[in-house]
Design a protein that fits this description.
The structure holds 2 protein chains of 2 kinds. In chain A, about 65% of the residues lie in helices and about 5% in strands. Chain A is mainly α. Chain A has one domain. In chain A, the strands form 2 sheets. A 3-stranded antiparallel sheet of chain A has the order 1-2-5. In chain A, about 45% of the residues are buried. Chain B is mainly alpha-helical. Chain B has one domain. Chain B contains 15 helices and 6 strands. In chain B, the strands form 2 sheets. Chain B has a 3-stranded antiparallel sheet, with helices on both faces. In chain B, strands 4-6-5 form a 3-stranded antiparallel sheet. The longest helix of chain B is centred in the first third of the chain and has 45 residues. In chain B, about 45% of the residues are buried. The chains are: A mainly alpha, B mainly alpha. Chains A and B meet through helix 2, helix 5, helix 10 and helix 12 of A and helix 2, helix 3 and helix 8 of B.
Chain lengths: ~475, ~500
C-alpha cells in the first residue's frame, strides 16, 4: 500500500510545474559547478602543483641543512608544513579560502647580537617554532556564496518544501484525503507513502545531476579521484539524502498541521529562509561577539611586552645574564643560552598557540550553536567529508604541533649518538656538528580524520527522527476534513 | 477615489490580519536587530583600530625632522553607514603609506613592505560565516514577504470566487489593480519602516556612532530605495498572480524566481567571472620587470644629468661613504616591488661642502617622484584588471534586480568598491599634494632634506589626508543608474500587470 501511495505521488509530482523548474535548475548548477571547478583559475591542478612544489622545496631545505650539520638543521627547522589540497573542494569549499595553506616551521632570520656581549660577530637565530600565517584576503571574493554541492543541497531543501507543502493539506482541500483514509490503510502508511514519493522525486534528479557533474569532471580529467574519494562522494550523496529527508518531514509536518496548503507553504518558506539565510550566519557572528577574544593589536602588544621583559633580563640592562657567546668550551654559558632560548621559544609558542586556539574555539562555539539549523549541520558534514572544514584545519594544526615535537625528539636522539656533542638543545654550539642522513629526518604526514562528520550525521539522523515523529503525531491528530 | 480607497483598505486589512504579516514582521524585526547589533560592534572595533592607527601615525610624525624622512599615511576612516551595509568595508587596505619613490598599488600576493596595508582581522576564521547586515536581510526577507503578500491578490481571489464579485461591481479594473498595489505596499511599509527605526535606534544607542545630518539623509535615501525594491517584488508577485490560475502556482513560481534572483544568479555569475577572469592577462609578478625597467631609465637619466653637470665622480667632490649611519643622500636600489633609497652617508656633514649635493638632490628627487608615478601606472595594472573583472561581474549581476538593489544601497552608503577605489585614488592625490608641498618649499634641494645641523625641517603645515564623504546629492547621482533600473522594473512590471489585468478573462 505504501508503495502504491508513493507511486501515485511520484506520478503526480512528475507533471507539476515545480518538477519542471527543478529539472531546469539542477543540471544548470551541476554543469556550472563542474566546469567552473575543473577549468577555472585556481582549480585543483594549480593547488596540487603548488603543494608538490612546496613539499619538494622542503625536502631540498632539509637535505641542505642536514648536509651541513645536525645543529644547523635543529635551528633552521624542517620548513613550511603545507596542507594537502582537497580534491572534493567542488563539493564543499568550507574554510579553504579562509585558512592558510601552510604552517611555518622554520627560522629564517638571523639576528646579530646586540651590544653588551663580547664577540660581536656572533650571530644567533631564534630556534624554530610554529608560526600560523594569516591569509590576507586581498580580493573581495571571500564571504561570497560559492557554487558548490552545499549550495545545491540548500536549494534541494527548498525544493523539498515545494514538493511537500500540499502533500496532505492539498488532498484535504480537494477532499481526496478522506477517500484515501476510507481504505484499509493506516495514517502512518499514508505518511510514509507520501514521504517516499517526495524522496524519490527529489533524489532521482539529484543523483542524475551528480552523475553528470562527475562525468564532466572525469572527462576534463583535471581532478583525479582515487577509491577513497569515491567513498567520500558516496557519503556525500548519503548526506544529501539525509538532508532532503529532514525537509520532507518538515514539509509533511506543516502540511498536516494546517488546513490550507498555501498557509503551510507560507510557514515553510519563512522557516526555510530563517534556517538557510538568517540563522546560520547571523547566529554564528552573534555568538562569537558574545565570546570576545583579544584583538590582534592586543596580542602583539602583549608579545612585545613579554619579549622586552625577557630581553631586559637576559641581554640588556646593567647586569645581563648573557655576557658571553656560547661555544664548545664554555659549557655553562652555552647552558645559559639554552635556557634563554627555551624561555623565548616557550613564550612565543604560548602566545601564538594560545591566540590561534582562542580564535578556533570562538569559531567552534559559533559553529556548534548554528547546528540547530539542519542546513548548517548539512553544510558542516559536507565540509567534513570534503576535508575543508574548520575541524580539519584544527586537526592539521594539532598534527603540526605533534610533528614539531617529533622533529625535536629526532634531533635530540641523533644528538645523543654523537659523543663529541655537548647535548645542549637548542643552541647551535651545544649540538652535534656532524651532518645527518636527510632521509632519516621525520616527514610530516597529514592524517585526515572524518570522525567529526559522525556527530553531524548523528545530528541529521536525529533531525530526521524528530521531524518524522512530529509529522507523524501531527498527522495522527489532524482532522481528515 | 472613494472606491480606490476602499480597495486599498480592504487589501491592507486582509494582509495585516494574516499570520504571515505577524511572522514576517517579527522575523524582519528580530533579524534586523541582531544584524545591527553585530554590525555596530564590528564598526566600533574598526573605529578604535582606526583611531589607534591615526594616533600612532601622529606620534610617528613628531619624530620627523628631515624632509627625506616624511612618510605620511592615508587612513581609511570607517563608514558609520556600514552598520546598514557592510559592503567592502572589511576588505582591502586600511592604510596607505605615502612615500616619494613608492608607487601606490595593490597586489593580491603579499609583498614585503607593500604601500597598502590591511589591519588584520581579530579572527580571520569567522569569515566562514556570511556577513549579514540590514540590507542583506531586506534583500532576502523583505522580498520574500512582498511575494507572500502578493501571490494571492488575483489568483487567490479568483479561486475563492471573490474576484467575480468584485468585478461585478462598478469598479473599473484599473482601480482594482492600483488599489491592490497600494494596499499591499501600505502593509509592507510599516515593516520596512519599523525595521529601519529599530536598526537606527540600536545604532544610535552605541556611544561611538554619531550620525550627522548627511548620514540621516543617506539613511532616508536607503529607506526610499528599499521601498522601491520591495515594490518591485510585490509587482512581480502581482503579475504572476494575474498570469496564473491558482494561488499555489503563483507562489511556487514566484518563490522559484525569488530563489534564482536573490541567491543563485549573482553567485553563479560572480563565481564564474572570478574563476574564469576574462581580463586577466598576466600574473602579478610579470609586472615587476617593466617596473624595474622604469627604474633603470630613471637611473640612466639621472646619471646623464650628473655627467652633464660634470659630477660623474661624486666621491671626488664630496666625501661620502656608503652605508654609514649618518643621514645622507640617496642612490637607489630596488626592493620588494617599489623603489627605496639606499642611504649614503655624508661623513662630517658640518664640514663638507654640500652645495653640489643639494643641487643634485633637487634634480634627483623631483625625477624620482616622476618615475615613481610611471612605475605606479604599470604596477596598478593588475588592480585595474581585477576591477574590470569585478565590473563585468557586477554588470551581469544587474540582470537580477535584487542585486541592483544591493549595488544601489552600497553606493548610497559609500561601502561599495567605487568608494574604496576613491580612497586609493585619494591617497594618490594626497601623494601629489605632498610632492607639490615639498616642491613649493624647495625641500629637495634644502639642507634639511638630509641634515639637521642647520635647523630641522619645518613640517608644521604638512598637508593631512582628508577623508571625503559624499554629500547626499553626489551619492544620489552615483546610485542614479541603479535606482533608475529599479524604477524601470517597477514601471514595466506595473504596466504589464495593468494591461494583463485589463485583458484578464474571467471564466
Amino acid at each position: 500500500m505504501i508503495l502504491q501511495i508513493a507511486k501515485k505521488e511520484i506520478h503526480h509530482n512528475l507533471t507539476t510545474l515545480r518538477f519542471a523548474l527543478m529539472i531546469i535548475l539542477l543540471p544548470v548548477l551541476f554543469v556550472a559547478n563542474a566546469l567552473i571547478y575543473s577549468l577555472g583559475d585556481g582549480g585543483y591542478t594549480a593547488r596540487i602543483d603548488a603543494y608538490n612544489e612546496r613539499v619538494r622545496q622542503d625536502r631540498k631545505h632539509i637535505k641542505a641543512q642536514a648536509d651541513i650539520s645536525l645543529a644547523e638543521l635543529a635551528l633552521r627547522g624542517p620548513g613550511d608544513i603545507p596542507k594537502r589540497p582537497s580534491r572534493l573542494i567542488f563539493c564543499a569549499g568550507g574554510v579553504d579560502e579562509v585558512v592558510s595553506r601552510s604552517i611555518k616551521l622554520r627560522s629564517d632570520g638571523g639576528i646579530s647580537r646586540s651590544s653588551g656581549v663580547d664577540d660581536e660577530d656572533y650571530a644567533w637565530r631564534h630556534p624554530l617554532r610554529l608560526e600560523y600565517k594569516v591569509v590576507s584576503s586581498g580580493s573581495h571574493s571571500t564571504g561570497r556564496v560559492k557554487i558548490n554541492w552545499v549550495f545545491i543541497g540548500v536549494l534541494m531543501s527548498f525544493f523539498a518544501i515545494l514538493f511537500t507543502f500540499d502533500a496532505i493539506a492539498g488532498e484535504r482541500m480537494r477532499g481526496t484525503l478522506s477517500l484515501i483514509m476510507s481504505n484499509s490503510v493506516s495514517r502512518g502508511q499514508v505518511l510514509l507513502g507520501k514521504y517516499l514519493g517526495a524522496f524519490v522525486t527529489l533524489t532521482v534528479p539529484l543523483v542524475m545531476g551528480v552523475l553528470v557533474n562527475l562525468l564532466i569532471i572525469l572527462l576534463i580529467g583535471s581532478i583525479p579521484f582515487d577509491s577513497a574519494d569515491w567513498l567520500r562522494i558516496l557519503g556525500i550523496v548519503g548526506l544529501f539524502a539525509l538532508h532532503i529527508s529532514v525537509f520532507i518531514f518538515l514539509g509533511l509536518f506543516f502540511s498536516s498541521r494546517v488546513s490550507n496548503a498555501i498557509t503551510s507553504l507560507v510557514w515553510l518558506l519563512l522557516t526555510w529562509v530563517c534556517l538557510a539565510f538568517v540563522f546560520p550566519s547571523l547566529l554564528g557572528i552573534f555568538v562569537s561577539n558574545l565570546n570576545p577574544i583579544p584583538s590582534v593589536d592586543e596580542i602583539s602588544m602583549q608579545r612585545r611586552a613579554q619579549l622586552d621583559q625577557i630581553e631586559d633580563e637576559w641581554q640588556r640592562g646593567s647586569s645581563p645574564r648573557l655576557k658571553k657567546s656560547p661555544s664548545l668550551e664554555r659549557i655553562s654559558v652555552t647552558r645559559l643560552w639554552s635556557e634563554y632560548f627555551t624561555v623565548i621559544t616557550d613564550m612565543e609558542t604560548q602566545i601564538a598557540d594560545g591566540h590561534i586556539d582562542r580564535q578556533l574555539q570562538q569559531v567552534q562555539l559559533a559553529r556548534d550553536l548554528t547546528q540547530i539549523s539542519p542546513i548548517a549541520t548539512f553544510q558542516y558534514a559536507m565540509e567534513g567529508l570534503a576535508n575543508t572544514s574548520i575541524v580539519g584545519y584544527m586537526n592539521f594544526v594539532k598534527q603540526a604541533r605533534r610533528y614539531r615535537q617529533t622533529f625535536i625528539d629526532f634531533i635530540k636522539t641523533e644528538d645523543r649518538s654523537d659523543p663529541e656533542s655537548l647535548h645542549i638543545y637548542p643552541v647551535k654550539e651545544g649540538l652535534s656538528q656532524k651532518p645527518v642522513d636527510p632521509d632519516a629526518v621525520p616527514v610530516f604526514e597529514e592524517r585526515i580524520s572524518y570522525r567529526s562528520v559522525l556527530s553531524q550525521v548523528g545530528l541529521l539522523v536525529l533531525f530526521n527522527l524528530l521531524f518524522f515523529i512530529v509529522a507523524q503525531v501531527s498527522f495522527l491528530m489532524s482532522e481528515v476534513k | 477615489m472613494h472606491t480606490l480607497w476602499l480597495v486599498i483598505q480592504r487589501e491592507f486589512v486582509s494582509n495585516v490580519l494574516t499570520s504571515r504579516f505577524m511572522i514576517g514582521f517579527m522575523v524582519c524585526l528580530l533579524s534586523t536587530a541582531v544584524a545591527v547589533f553585530v554590525q555596530v560592534d564590528d564598526y566600533e572595533k574598526r573605529l578604535s583600530g582606526y583611531n589607534t592607527a591615526v594616533r600612532e601615525a601622529e606620534a610617528e610624525a613628531q619624530e620627523w625632522d628631515l624632509y627625506v624622512d616624511i612618510k605620511p599615511k592615508a587612513h581609511r576612516k570607517p563608514n558609520p553607514l556600514s552598520i546598514f551595509n557592510v559592503g567592502v568595508e572589511n576588505d582591502g587596505a586600511n592604510t596607505v603609506t605615502v612615500e616619494l619613490g613608492k608607487p601606490i598599488f595593490e597586489f593580491i600576493s603579499t609583498i614585503w613592505g607593500a604601500p597598502t596595508q590591511k589591519r588584520g582581522s581579530d579572527n580571520p576564521f569567522l569569515a566562514m560565516f556570511l556577513t549579514v547586515d540590514v540590507v542583506f536581510i531586506f534583500k532576502i526577507v523583505l522580498s520574500a514577504l512582498a511575494i507572500l503578500f502578493a501571490y494571492n491578490t488575483i489568483s487567490g481571489e479568483r479561486e475563492d470566487g471573490t474576484l467575480k464579485l468584485v468585478l461585478s461591481n462598478s469598479i473599473p479594473r484599473d482601480t482594482i489593480v492600483l488599489g491592490k498595489y497600494l494596499g499591499g505596499m501600505l502593509s509592507l511599509f510599516p515593516i520596512v519602516l519599523m525595521s529601519l527605526i529599530v536598526a537606527l535606534l540600536i545604532a544610535v544607542s552605541s556611544p561611538v556612532t554619531g550620525f550627522d545630518g548627511n548620514d540621516i539623509a543617506h539613511i532616508v535615501l536607503i529607506f526610499g530605495v528599499s521601498l522601491l525594491y520591495v515594490s518591485t517584488w510585490y509587482l512581480l508577485g502581482l503579475l504572476l498572480s494575474v498570469w496564473t490560475k491558482t494561488a499555489a502556482t503563483t507562489l511556487i513560481l514566484s518563490m522559484f524566481i525569488w530563489v534564482v534572483l536573490t541567491s543563485v544568479h549573482a553567485n553563479v555569475v560572480t563565481f564564474a567571472v572570478d574563476k574564469f577572469s576574462p581580463y586577466q592577462s598576466q600574473p602579478e609578478g610579470a609586472f615587476l620587470q617593466p617596473a624595474f625597467d622604469v627604474w633603470d631609465e630613471y637611473k640612466k637619466e639621472r646619471d646623464t644629468y650628473f655627467k652633464q653637470r660634470g659630477y660623474d665622480d661624486l666621491k671626488a667632490s664630496v666625501t661620502w661613504e656608503p652605508e654609514t649611519e649618518s643621514t645622507g643622500v640617496g642612490s637607489s636600489s630596488y626592493t620588494g616591488g617599489y623603489f627605496r633609497l639606499r642611504r649614503y652617508g655624508v661623513t662630517s656633514v658640518s664640514k663638507a661642502d654640500t652645495t653640489i649635493f643639494q643641487e643634485l638632490l633637487g634634480y634627483q628627487e623631483r625625477l624620482r617622484s616622476e618615475y615613481a608615478g610611471k612605475a605606479e601606472e604599470i604596477l596598478n595594472k593588475p588592480a585595474e584588471e581585477r576591477e574590470r573583472n569585478a565590473k563585468l561581474a557586477d554588470a551581469l549581476s544587474r540582470i537580477s534586480f535584487a542585486d541592483v538593489y544591493h549595488f544601489a544601497v552600497g553606493t548610497i552608503a559609500g561601502t561599495d568598491r567605487q568608494s574604496y577605489n576613491d580612497f586609493i585614488q585619494g591617497s594618490r592625490v594626497y601623494k601629489r599634494e605632498i610632492v607639490e608641498y615639498l616642491k613649493d618649499k624647495e625641500a629637495f634641494s634644502s639642507r634639511a632634506w638630509f641634515s639637521t645641523d642647520k635647523g630641522a625641517a619645518d613640517l608644521a603645515d604638512l598637508p593631512v589626508f582628508k577623508h571625503k564623504r559624499l554629500s547626499i546629492s553626489e551619492s544620489f547621482a552615483r546610485a542614479s543608474v541603479d535606482i533608475l533600473i529599479l524604477l524601470a522594473w517597477n514601471i514595466i512590471l506595473f504596466m504589464t500587470v495593468y494591461v494583463s489585468f485589463l485583458r484578464y478573462e474571467m471564466s
